[in-house]
Design goal:
alpha/beta, 8-stranded mixed sheet, 5-stranded parallel sheet, 13 strands, globular
């Protein structure tokens, strides 16, 4: 087993706390998903370290990273089964960890057969949501749980900087700008120069295309795919539709079918580059088809593909709040209230809601303040919490709506 047993790792407690109750469950397969390089392997190693501290013998823990030697040449289910069989010799309950399992064709049959042994607790990771489609979903319905991992959120970014003994400014606004420009990929945080961080993310984008997109989707023209990808990334946080994208690309003399655009967006979502936020009509309590918003799993994707470092705080702050809420396990949608729109409706596991409006500031004018409060003030049918989230230090109270500072709220690891 080549996991990092003796290495001190940065703890991702918000994810460990969700998985911890299932460590010893042999009936439930733990599926850890997330964009490539977001920290899934480290999370697995943290789980293993906790098991060892709890007294589990190292002989009962099997760990295979299929992206690394000597396992990267494995591709067939029989090869994976033989590998597990060779190492599963200890008596008693075993803990099986397989990293990047999508490298094995028809891996579902192997995983299911070992689950049926009854004494094996299984953890698998994958960088593409296709692994939760097809056979795994049909054969193992109700027998697996997905835990989606994101790159570092702002609170984790600050904590990991301290963990790495890097200087953390007492001014959270300074750190927020640093976070926006640098992004939240854990390895990038270890690099010192911004140019190195950008080069790392550009290489990661190519790796995602080669390993997580091209192998799953037929792409006849790479330049057209890049055009669609760049369009979506450059317009993150904007309300859009397939029709709008096709029309806008046509204006730039790029002819592309609706079906192709939809296929490419699905590929970027499956590779965990994009996060889709659907619109929800709060009066009818129904989802609205057509127009959607797309956010980035990490803001560094935008800056790696653009030379302009200027920050458009509107969609950027929305993206930061969206990622934070997603890391907390909330289901998220955009709320439509007549002609008004609420940036986010959040729903937790207890089916409680929260309403969130995000802005850079509401202190510019009374008109700005009224605009940001309007949609929240129109929500009168329930008593769920309502938030206006800004970068303002001066906070106010208005009609029971909580005005909070984004940096203080997120860095405090607060729930909505």
């Amino acid at each position: 087993m080549e996991c990092e047993l003796n290495k001190e790792l940065f703890s991702r407690e918000k994810y460990l706390s969700k998985i911890r109750g299932f460590y010893h469950e042999c009936e439930i397969i733990k599926v850890i998903t997330g964009v490539r390089r977001c920290g899934k392997s480290s999370l697995m190693n943290l789980i293993i370290q906790e098991l060892l501290k709890d007294g589990i013998s190292q002989n009962n823990i099997l760990y295979f990273n299929l992206d690394k030697r000597p396992y990267r040449s494995l591709s067939k289910p029989d090869e994976l089964d033989a590998l597990i069989e060779k190492h599963a010799t200890a008596q008693g309950k075993k803990f099986l960890f397989i990293d990047e399992i999508q490298n094995i064709s028809e891996f579902e049959t192997v995983i299911n057969s070992w689950r049926e042994e009854g004494d094996v607790s299984i953890f698998i990771t994958g960088s593409n949501s296709y692994l939760l489609s097809g056979e795994l979903a049909t054969k193992l319905t109700g027998r697996y749980l997905e835990f989606n991992v994101l790159p570092l959120t702002f609170d984790e970014y600050l904590a990991m900087k301290s963990f790495l003994h890097k200087e953390v400014s007492a001014d959270f606004m300074t750190e927020l700008v640093n976070y926006i420009h640098e992004g939240g990929f854990p390895y990038a945080l270890r690099l010192d120069s911004l140019s190195d961080k950008r080069a790392y993310v550009r290489g990661l984008i190519d790796e995602i295309y080669q390993k997580d997109i091209r192998k799953k989707v037929i792409i006849k023209n790479k330049s057209v795919f890049d055009t669609v990808m760049n369009y979506i990334i450059n317009n993150f946080g904007a309300t859009t539709s397939i029709t709008n994208i096709v029309d806008d690309l046509a204006k730039n003399k790029v002819s592309i079918k609706r079906e192709t655009v939809n296929k490419y967006i699905d590929a970027l979502k499956s590779a965990k580059v994009l996060m889709e936020c659907k619109r929800f009509d709060m009066k009818s309590r129904k989802s609205l088809s057509g127009e959607k918003k797309y956010y980035l799993s990490d803001l560094s994707f935008y800056y790696a593909l653009n030379t302009d470092n200027r920050i458009n705080f509107g969609p950027t702050l929305e993206n930061i709040v969206y990622s934070y809420a997603a890391s907390k396990g909330y289901e998220i949608s955009v709320g439509k209230i007549g002609k008004l729109e609420c940036d986010f409706i959040l729903r937790d596991r207890e089916l409680s809601y929260a309403y969130v409006q995000v802005a850079y500031t509401i202190l510019e004018s009374r008109k700005t303040e009224d605009r940001e409060y309007a949609s929240l003030e129109s929500i009168t049918r329930d008593n769920y919490p309502r938030y206006v989230m800004t970068t303002d230090k001066l906070l106010q109270k208005r009609n029971g709506i909580q005005h909070v500072n984004i940096m203080d709220f997120i860095s405090g690891d607060k729930n909505f």
